[in-house]
Amino acid sequence: MTPPDPPAGPAGPPARPWALLAELTHACPLHCGYCSNPLELTRRSSELSTEQWKDVLRQAGELGVVQMHLSGGEPLLRRDLVEIVAAAEAAGIYTQLVTSGVGLSESRLAALAAAGLKSVQLSVQHADPRASDRIAGRRSFAEKEHAAGLVRAAGLPLGMNVVLHRENLDALDALVELGVSWGVDRIELANVQFYGWGLLNRAALLPTREQLTGAREGVQRWRGRLPDGPELVWVVPDYFDGVAKPCMGGWGAVSLTVAPDGTVLPCPAAAALPDLDPPNVRDHRLDWIWDHSGAFTRYRGTDWMPDPCRSCSRREQDFGGCRCQAYALTGDATRTDPACGLSPDHGLIRGLADEATDGRNRITRRAPARPEAVGPG
Ligand code: SF4
Ligand code: FES
């Protein structure tokens, strides 16, 4: 079974969200330097309870959501994951588990599949086990390999996701070969984006133009060599093409994110925007949040746009780019995304991309979490 297609066409934002990103927990066994979760993570004791998640999913189904990514952190750390998947299934929502693979057992996977889980996306940091463990900040490659075998044996669709950056872009060929040998259906080659903790490590993560050119050519070559799959998805880098991405398919247009503590956001990184005042499912219903909350209506559509977006022919295609990136780079979320070559701030991006030749910067990792009372998961 494959996920339903998103609504298409130039008719503008649909009336209802199509996808939900459920960040079940910020807790994670890995310590990747590119982590896009916020600097300040939600504590386990502040996470939504099982019953609250079930209610969220009931509301999401009524609102029209058809696909959900169960994410985090590491969603397997929620002991109630099977119940959450079952609640999504009852609400008619297609579920994909987004996981590091650490902690996935045959019995857990069987229970998840029986509850309605439809597919799994596995993160991999490098094709070389030692390099993968180094980037992940702990031994994990062997568990990922084991998890891939379990998913294949269970007959579920399997995707592999690799965040690409300076340390692994040159290993693109080996990464594709790894995905083929694991029998994956899809390989998502996602160039690193700079949000949350990853923004702190930007200098160490930014690739060189030469690396990106080589990897892009490599993807084209592999697509020619693998006409029958796996599907290769290349998520374009932000800083190098002079083009703004249609972030999240538009602000409050197709998707919503529910953070571990119940905060509802138009995108996972939006918690960093000042004055957004995001609503919470503990206080409001999802339909009100989607239709009426200031957080969701602020950058919806095109009326909020400044020039050059306001008068640009691409404004309905890229929606002025990414609000979080505009804020991260200019301190003003209302400005045109500096990734766009037409932005008056594009020089900020060009400067960073041109400096990306110095490999001396080191990755900073989060401090290990302090022990605390176990949360609802
Ligand atoms: Fe997109 Fe705005 Fe750039 Fe036009 S000016 S291409 S709408 S980001
Ligand atoms: Fe928030 Fe792009 S990541 S709008």
Automatic annotation (TrEMBL):
GTP-binding among keywords: no
Keyword Disulfide bond: no
Binding site for [4Fe-4S] cluster: 28, 32, 35
Cofactor binding, per record: Binds 1 [4Fe-4S] cluster. The cluster is coordinated with 3 cysteines and an exchangeable S-adenosyl-L-methionine.
Superkingdom classification of source: Bacteria
Record's keyword terms, sorted: 4Fe-4S, Iron, Iron-sulfur, Metal-binding, Oxidoreductase, PQQ biosynthesis, S-adenosyl-L-methionine
Region Disordered, residue ranges: 356-377
Pathway: Cofactor biosynthesis; pyrroloquinoline quinone biosynthesis
Alphabetical list of Gene3D superfamilies matching this protein: Aldolase class I
Residue ranges occupied by any Radical SAM core domain in the UniProt entry: 14-231
SMART domains: Elp3
Listed cofactors: [4Fe-4S] cluster
Catalytic activity: [PQQ precursor protein] + S-adenosyl-L-methionine = E-Y cross-linked-[PQQ precursor protein] + 5'-deoxyadenosine + L-methionine + H(+)
Stated family: Belongs to the radical SAM superfamily. PqqE family.
Function, in words: Catalyzes the cross-linking of a glutamate residue and a tyrosine residue in the PqqA protein as part of the biosynthesis of pyrroloquinoline quinone (PQQ).
Protein name (database record): PqqA peptide cyclase
Organism the protein comes from: Streptomyces osmaniensis
Underlying gene: pqqE_2
